[in-house]
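Many introductory courses stop at the sequence. We go one step further.
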Amino acid sequence: MYSTAVVFSVSHNWIPPFQLKLLLWDGCKVGPGFPAWLQTQRSLLELSLYNVGIVGTIPNWFWKWASNIQAIHLRCNKISGDLSHVLLNNTIFFADSNRFMGQLPHLSSNVACFSMVNNSLSGQISSFLCQKMNGRSKLAILDLSNSAFSGELGHCLVHLQSLIHLNLGSNNLSGKIPEFIGSLVSLKALHLHNFAENKPTGNIPSWIGERTNLMVIRLRSNEFFGDIPQQICRLSSLIVLDLAYNRLSGSIPRAAFVVHQKEGIRISSILPLVRMVDLSCNNLFGGIPAEISSPFGLQSLNLSRNHLMGRIPEKIGGIEYLESLDLSNNHLSGEIPQSITSLTFLSQLDLSYNNFSGRIPSRTQLPSFDALDFIGNPELCGTPLQKNCTENEGPQGEENVEGTEISWFYIGAATGFLVGFWGVCGALQCKRAWRHAFFKFLDSIKDRFMNNVGLDFDMFEMSKGLQPRRKGGKRWW
């Protein structure tokens, strides 16, 4: 049940005449305290108290009572307290967006999903990761982002071989990404972004390309430097690549966007599933690879605030599902390619502060974008900018292309007419016999035409009961 209008109020000593297996109370008004009658439920498998208005600490009876519940959801309340003395045995435990403080609870080997995002938890992250468990850990999802953990990751992550999703972003962690993360063979999502202090430094490790199961890589807002490793092109399952706000240099790997073809038919690309690429706010240089148009499923591309040069690839319109494109604050130049008008899903565009020139393509939705999306390009003109394009702007846009085609059509037609006309007239002027034969042929055509017209006119008059009008036995004309 989900409703913000339902208020569940019973007496403190109420004993319900039922036993529940599922209690999904999302959005209902239950708080401010935990319902005491929950202690009577001995068969409960899943408890969801999402956004129910609970305030304060969890009662002491709760943890022992809840030890046999498979899934507990306590997100979006105002629950506080220290959990360092608690041993969790639940398969799923979500307590995001609360007010928990201190260190993390102990986990049994049965815990598979553990998320405490956006709390006030603190302490050394290694003390949590290195805690001893009875049996092999089943932990698959670990999300402790937006907290205040500190220290280095340590070597204990290597024991979490079932880990699929790891998110430790927006903490105070430090050090390099340990190489043993590469041994987590099941890992599909790695979020180590936006560390507040002592940000991780060094090169992005090359082993990251060995984890071909990775679907999400978010290493933004750190101090990584050096080139983007070519090994990243091996990640055939990658959906999100976010390396923004680092100190990466070098060029954008072309191999990441190469398309395999067989007999001229596209069969796959290196990153066939990628949907979002964010390499903004680095020190990348060189050009935008022409192959970037190959992953046609790409929906968001951000290359802003780098040192990229050259032109926008002519075939950028081939990224047919692109919704967001940000190339601002680079050194790109040349005309905006006409193919960009093929991006019918494009809803966010920023080409500001480059060296683009010529007319902004006027088809589709480009003129509807804000002028700020094109500002900082002195040689750019056309809607939505206030600068109008003059007649000598050069052949920009579809209108000029069509005008050029029409001009050449008339030039070709006139040339053909003159050549044909003078070819015939010249031959008749030079050959007397041809000239006589030509005019004789015209006379015969004229006589045949006049006879046919006269016969039709006679038949018309006779059908009206009139006599054909003749002159001297001949038709009057």
